[in-house]
Amino acid sequence: MKPYSILVVDDDNYIRLFLQETLEGKGYQVRLAEDGVAALAQVKSMPPDLVLTDLKMPQKDGLELLQDIRRLKDPPGVIIITAYGTIETAVEAMKHGAFDYLTKPFSITEIDSRLRRYFEIHSLRRENRTLRKQLKTQEAIADMVGQSPALLRVLERVDMVSNSDAPVFIQGESGTGKELVAVALHRRSNRADQPFLQTNCAAIPENLIESTLFGHVQGAFTGATKTTKGLFEEAHNGTLLLDEISEISTGLQAKLLRVLQEQRLNKVGSHKPVDINVRIVATTNRNIQELISAGTFREDLFYRLNVVPIYVPPLRERAEDIPLLLDHFVTLFCEKYNQPKKEISADTLRRLERYNWPGNIREVKNNTERAVLFAGSLQELKLEHFFPPEVQDHGPAKPLFNGATTIAEVEKQAILITLEQTGQNRTQAARILDISVKTLRNKLKLYGLDSSSS
User: Fold this and answer.
1) pLDDT, tens digit, for every residue of 311-326?
2) In 198-249, where does DSSP find H-type helix?
3) Which of 49, 111, 312, 348 reaches 20 to 30 Å from 125, CA-CA?
4) Which domains does the chain have, with CATH numbers?
């Protein structure tokens, strides 16, 4: 096993050399730094397993170094050395995340005991993180139901890039499972134990979205009664999913681009920058190139987000997964509603396999939940359980998108078919398509089909 590495930080050269000789004699790899500034540079370039630092140093003292280290994505442990061994000093160091502290003068036995204790706990934590990551990896894969080549290509891309910090841009129609891909990326990454936050950009009022993302200070605007963190700060060291990013204004796009480039932000009403370390995953169900051509989405922001592109195929491109999805959701909802496992009749299954499912996986899930509920005590699920009688003629017998050849045409037909199925109920159609009513209304305006009716 590779020996643990320790960075010793002290402005006293005698103490540095004494600790180096002592710790190397115990089998540790030891590096030295004469102050907090040099130590932080070493931690960033070649992270040690533990930092053993003096408290009182010029330029950057031990507490400042500790706080800087704790802001890093995967910070090493820190033990503080101080000649000022008051309770207040110890409490302050522990409050900021120090593992322990040593008071000068200290013995070799005392150092050895503290280090052994740290590395025993460190080893257990590392094993626990590995086990949790393995479990989360299995959960992430389990959520992505299917065995089609199209889905396997998506999972392969997730495997390739999950442990990088590169932004990921996920495109695909509504209801295809873009959020599941984002969750899988996070769960299988080295940020898996850190926050995973998400927001639907289309669902936030335009006057609040900047504050929601970047936070605000007290008094920044009417109603800002206290300083608040935004999602970027809350997701520090983790992952932030910006769903339907194509819906944000061009003005906010410029601010978002600057944050991504500089890895720092200003809260609304403040000029004091805040450093962040966040992996961004963005999604859209719209044709981003058309939006760029129309001038409603910044091309430079797209390139910043699209470092790793992932396309999630619609269900019609992975039709062989439909039976697996149906079985998955039947099992899920039978367990949820405490019912024995139900079966889908052979005729119904054939018709469901031929249906285009314009709402994709979201529609499969919603209709399967309806089927389980409507079937009651019956053990066999039939077509009328999945589709109410008034929409059956427009459901599983519908041909595949009538010759549509582009994503925009497919999207339009998916929306029109879903509206037809729901009796022009936009709220229900938006739920099936997994988009906001506002987005649905905007798309209908684009098609020249918007009216005051709902």
Assistant:
1) 999 999 999 999 999 9
2) 209-214, 231-234
3) 111
4) 5-126 (3.40.50.2300), 144-311 (3.40.50.300), 315-446 (1.10.8.60)
